[in-house]
Amino acid sequence: MVGTACFRGAHPHRTTYARNLVMIVSRLIGGLGNQMFQYAAGRALALRRGVPFAIDSRAFADYKTHAFGMQCFCADLTEAPARLIPNPPAEGRLQRLLRRFLPSPLRVYTEKTFTFDNAVLSLPDGTYLDGYWQSEKYFADFADQIRKDFAVKAAPSAPNQAWLELIDRTHSVSLHIRRGDYVSNAAAAAVHGTCDLGYYERAVAHLHQVTGQAPELFVFSDDLDWVAANLQLPYKMHLVRDNDASTNFEDLRLMTACRHHVVANSSFSWWGAWLDGRSESITIAPARWFVADTPDARDLVPQRWVRL
């Protein structure tokens, strides 16, 4: 299997980009799943307005928790010119003085709440999006284009190609267990928590009942040793160990290739399931995404997914 060919025609507004400074910009920060939500919301808004789209990834220069990871995709990652960015990092005194007389033409729109904000869909040209935008409602009208943008450019490695072939010939189900900072970081654990083993037992049993076939599980996790010691399910399981943080896009591609999906309360496995656009695919998501009732995750999980 070869990598995905990424075709991009000339943007009809590219010549007006430099002259009129009309564009949409999304600030990217966080893990890969978060970056994808931020890109998708901005990209869809730009398509809706018919103007160019650019990203602002400058925050990663001082961000140690996660690396910028979008370069693995077919997405056009044009960086917005520094002179357009509101309050750019490392701005000197002269630049700050000039900004008083030559303010950024971009208007910052900051996420007000975790739930879907319908106003975002009709924001004007020249908007700078600053938030997480974790709902498909921000880009559902351009779902096909977003899936094309998030196709992985590179051909899979030999081990991942073997996984893809096995996934293709089995009744494959991706199953994601997120631990990492959800366990080791007290603040993250207090907000997110982890899905208990009972959730996974109910999820795969539901898939078996609905499809009438025993699932073959392809398990992805940032703590596969813990999974091997604790996850006991009455189905064939494969622990996918060939990728790490630098090649997490390979795991994302493998997840998407599976026929059905059991996601964790994680934006990463959310995307692994969402990128599978097949209408017959079933996705199981946890009924509770966060430990508490806030943030309100009602718009995060698509209505067509099953919540257990």
From TrEMBL:
Write the protein's name.
Alpha-1,2-fucosyltransferase
GO biological process assignments: carbohydrate metabolic process
Q: Which PANTHER family match?
A: GALACTOSIDE 2-L-FUCOSYLTRANSFERASE, L-FUCOSYLTRANSFERASE
Q: Name one GO cellular component term.
A: membrane
Task: Reply yes or no: does the keyword Transport apply.
Answer: no
* Entry annotated with the keyword Ribosomal protein: no
Q: Which Pfam families match?
A: Glyco_transf_11
Q: Which CDD domains match?
A: Fut1_Fut2_like
What is the superkingdom listed in this entry's lineage?
Bacteria
Arranged from A to Z, the UniProt key words for this protein are: Glycosyltransferase, Transferase
From the UniProt record, which GO molecular function terms apply?
Answer: galactoside 2-alpha-L-fucosyltransferase activity
